[in-house]
Amino acid sequence: MSTEQVPEKFSGWLGHEPEAAKGKMVWGEFEPKTWEETDVDIKISHCGICGSDIHMLSSGWGPTPYPCCVGHEIVGKAVRVGKEV
């Protein structure tokens, strides 16, 4: 397991409104959720998006909590693993 320092802020492409589903996204910083011992932090090197991400950006499942950073098809390196994983 790596001993890399986990940043307090992450950066990525963010959607701020439903138009983000059409490509209107902005690069920016955001705070990750509070760490829990059931989590795994991954330093992402590659990420793709799929139809469910577009659906999320366009509020297809109800109101989207903007800003929203989507993408769950990832490649990366685990840098921290919780004790309950």
TrEMBL record:
One of its GO terms (molecular function) is oxidoreductase activity, acting on the CH-OH group of donors, NAD or NADP as acceptor. Transmembrane segments: none annotated. Keywords: Metal-binding, Oxidoreductase, Zinc. PROSITE patterns: ADH_ZINC. Residues 37-85 form the Alcohol dehydrogenase-like N-terminal domain. This is Alcohol dehydrogenase-like N-terminal domain-containing protein. It comes from Aureobasidium melanogenum. The lineage of its organism: Eukaryota, Fungi, Dikarya, Ascomycota, Pezizomycotina.
